[in-house]
Amino acid sequence: MQTSPDPTPAGPLAGLKVLELGQLIAGPFAAKTLADFGADVIKVEAPDGGDPLRRWRLLKDGTSVWWQVQSRNKRSVALDLKDPEAQALVRELALEADVLIENFRPGALEGFGLAPEALMAASPKLIVLRVSGYGQTGPYRDKPGFGVVAEAMGGLRHLSGEPGRVPVRVGVSIGDTLAALHGVIGVLMALHERGKSGRGQVVDVALYEAVFNCMESLLPEYSAFGAVRGPAGSALPGIAPTNAYVCRDGQVLVAGNGDSIFRRLMKTIAREDLAADAELADNTGRVARVAELDAAIGAWTATRTVDEVLAALDAAAVPGGRIYTAADIAHDPHYAARDMLLPVTLDDGSTLTVPGIVPKLSRTPGSHRRNAPALGADTEAVLAPLRARRKAEG
């Protein structure tokens, strides 16, 4: 039985103090995820413009609408990490933090006088999440690495697109996001271990490794058979039938690769002969005749609308779906029912719809507690206690 959430949930990470020194995507996404579930995230930004994400993609009143997603629930402190006084203040903030998150090139944090070893010596409980292109060790550690490069090195880019054509990117910064999620997992594991040992540790996440970790059987297939998987367009190599098919007014994805599902799909498209074919009873046989199966399914979808195809698939309990645009998402009743279309009121009184909180926790769910901050909006509130303590200590 699902427990009803508290009316005003603080979140399971309430009381956790996080110091974010990163910018753009990977580090800030990890911090955003922790903030969504109650962590108090202090984001340190350069006074001269702040995080460049503030000005990425489409702007509303001079600020990226993406910023309202990536930095919700955070506080902003404007400090120049190149300034020794700012470095001293950050060291004091680190003494009070449970987690520090950074995604600079390896060595940059040390260059700011903020080496994790020194910070952890002063505060043994501190957990430091370091996200970089290639990790903190190895021959490539000093190379600059963005998510797109990591997607290529991790094996994903080679698989994307159509056979014989230049590989394409997936359309979002998936390498950065995967690294951020791996970073969150690492932080939560380190927090769990700290509960037993009382000690923090460094969580080292490389962008390319986060991508590579999601590449399924890519490496063992090469190890066992010398097989180098290549791009396959919209199909799922080695699993059939699963593909995108053209309808009269669009395209649909059909996943008929389970044995019983396949038989139901073939009956739905009036191909009982294929449903009864013993050679197609399992995936191995279907993969060998995948072109024939795709042609049969495509011939059926081509004469129908997307809605007609999906209605028939639903009736037969065959997985299928339309290819959603942003407009489809914004008007979808299931997204709405799952609280994934979250309306927030901006400081100017306008309403902006942003993605809801993931994952869903039954008793201590995440929440949108405050909008993304203006640059340096919380500098005085955060630093005043430090300065007062310094003054009291003489």
From TrEMBL:
Report the InterPro entries cross-referenced here: CoA-transferase_III_domain, CoA-Trfase_fam_III, CoA-Trfase_III_dom3_sf, CoA-Trfase_III_dom_1_sf
Query: What would be one Pfam family of this protein?
Result: CoA_transf_3
Could you state a single Gene Ontology molecular function term? transferase activity
**Keywords, comma-separated and alphabetical:** Transferase
What is this protein's record name? Formyl-CoA transferase
